[in-house]
Design a protein that fits this description.
The structure is a homodimer of 248-residue chains.
Chain A: H1 6-9, H2 35-42, E1 46-50, E2 55-57, E3 65-71, E4 73-79, E5 85-92, E6 96-97, E7 108-111, E8 115-121, H3 124-131, H4 133-159, H5 162-176, E9 188-191, H6 196-203, H7 207-219, E10 224-226, E11 230-233, H8 236-242
Antiparallel strand pairs in A: 1-8, 2-7, 3-6, 3-8, 4-5, 4-7, 9-11, 10-11
The first copy, chain A, binds a DNA duplex (30 and 30 nucleotides) through helix 7.
Chain lengths: 248, 248
DNA sequence: CGTCCTATTGAAATTCTTCAACACTCGTGG
DNA sequence: CCACGAGTGTTGAAGAATTTCAATAGGACG
């Protein structure tokens, strides 16, 4: 079995400096690229920073750049004509951001937290794909993963109670967020990357209902809340149980 | 095995008989294949029929076969532990059915109507993909399309009223179903491929609410209903307006 | 003709939202 | 240093939408 030896196959000196510490090279799409291709791609990349709440790509507009997320959380959302909003996806490092093949996005892309990305012009990827079938495969795999997540969330949106929805959201973040976990006997702690209004838009609820359900979970001892953003979960399995078992 | 040159007696223009009338050759994944590959694939295919309400692939179980849908409607659904159900996707001909790369499905696959498929063993596709990058591309495109549809539906599930949900469902079917449309000046008519309980599970509602909202739409003159299944829409644009504008 | 399945309708109960008031935090500027 | 205001989050009470429970109707089929 290969352990950490994949670094031996590829000499670090062959990997562009900007890519050396990048997660996208391992779990992201760049893992499909050879050092030469990485070098070629890196000539076109720019690291960019978006501050929390800033818009990365508005809906319907031509997307000029695609990117890998280096840090932070990105939210994808949709709006009804009269302004109701639904968040339809969250992306974390080292996810690929930007839709391949399609020039314009069907969703609004916004930074939920401060976000750092490694951006490159749309089209760069498409031409790389012609030489590297594995790259399309990586993108396909990420799309399949996003589809799974979307469908999981449809179950939550359509069939769970407010209490279960909030628990599901916390469980999602607990298992996805870059862990500031203190894994002492199952107790973990993390920062919610969204404010209450985003949580509400993610769950199809109002901010008041979200707040009330958080309070309820706090009183039940399932979570502790510090600074409105930091959540401590003494027993992750208990939280997981709340995601499907309404005990209001 | 699935190489192009193994069958020297095949002319490029020779499409296998079983494939000649098949939509999958145009809009589906088979469009990526050469006549030789089609012939090779067709040796492994079996046409299969599922009757309405029968299970095609249970959740979590190994999927032995993949298929193209030839006719009918397939529903993909998920369940909570206590039995609440959510339909997370509908598939129509000539969609590809079955998840590439993953051996077991995360969703339950059932026939909503009688369904005819062109099935082949899991793995056939994967080996074809090695020679044909365009095939993975086709699959990727379908996955992207399903992801778009899932996200559209998340907006419906999370942010629309019962009345808007039912209108959205009817609009979806009206625009997706194999049309028995009579396109006389915008008036169309079609059969709903789902029974009320399926509609409810698709919309995150109860069957009673679905029934009430259908009655409301009927009284408002937006639709006419025959036999509980056949819907007549005098003005499709009017129906579309109902999908985002609550006029309960 | 009775039974099963599906769909509709009504009334009561519940969940969630809406409206409204209040609390907390964090900069800024007097 | 404190006051102020904006942004964010919480809590309460009333209201609305949807669900639940219950009864009924219609068709298909043996």
């Amino acid at each position: 079995m290969l352990k950490n030896n994949d670094r031996k196959d590829v000499h670090n000196s062959d990997v562009p400096v900007v890519c050396r510490a990048c997660e996208a090279r391992h779990r992201g799409i760049c893992g499909a690229l050879s050092p030469e291709q990485l070098l070629e791609l890196s000539k076109h990349t720019t690291k960019m920073v978006y501050s929390a709440e800033s818009e990365i790509a508005p809906v319907g507009q031509e997307v000029a750049r695609q990117a890998n997320i280096l840090s932070g959380v990105v939210k994808l959302s949709k709006l009804t004509a009269d302004g109701r909003q639904q968040i339809v996806g969250l992306q974390f490092a080292p996810d690929f951001m930007g839709r391949p093949y399609s020039r314009n996005s069907e969703v609004t892309v916004e930074a939920a937290t401060d976000v750092k990305v490694c951006a490159f012009p749309a089209g760069t990827l498409e031409s790389l794909m012609r030489d590297t079938p594995g790259l399309e495969h990586r993108l396909h795999e990420q799309t399949l993963k996003e589809l799974d997540e979307a469908r999981d969330w449809m179950l939550t949106l359509g069939r769970k109670t407010a209490s279960e929805k909030v628990a599901s959201f916390l469980y999602l973040i607990a298992t996805h967020a870059d862990p500031e976990l203190d894994t002492a006997e199952g107790a973990i702690s993390f920062d919610i990357p969204l404010k209450r209004s985003d949580i509400a838009d993610f769950l199809g609820l109002t901010i008041e209902t979200v707040s009330r359900q958080l309070t309820k979970l706090r009183h039940a001892g399932v979570i502790n809340i510090h600074n409105n953003r930091t959540i401590e979960v003494p027993d992750l399995d208990r939280l997981r149980q709340m995601t499907e078992q309404d005990t209001a």
